[in-house]
Amino acid sequence: MTNEHGAPDTSAFPFPAGYELSTDPTRLDLCRIHQWLSQDAYWAIGRTRGKQDASVAGSLNFGVYEEASGAQVGYARAVTDHATFAFLCDVYIDRSVRGKGLGTALAAGVRDHLAPYGLRRVLLATEDAHGVYEKVGFVGLDHPEHWMLLGEQ
Hints:
Layout: E1 19-22, H1 30-40, H2 49-57, E2 60-66, E3 72-80, E4 85-93, H3 102-114, E5 121-123, H4 130-134
């Protein structure tokens, strides 16, 4: 089930009271997203604003917002063909609201939003948040030797 902006029903991992998820692109705080990722996310340190804006434009974006103020406190994006594959990336929760379950709720929300497409695979890479993603069903690769990479390790 989704709301008018396509935000998923995250009842399995509900958002804490006072927070909501939306896929409405007009709500994204692009400046804040760039600041978070380029200055505080190990995988995107130094990313330019132009590169960040281009990545947003080519992705399905998810924002987490404080209901009272409307301020954005989290972000994730999925690069997907909406048919067979998605790559979940740039998952970030503002440091001021971490520890409230927002990261798990966000990951579940992305999972639930993508579920109706019947994708064969949703991949992600993480250095330090395996537990968050395992809670919503992600597992390590059975055969990582089958996968290859073109680009940075």
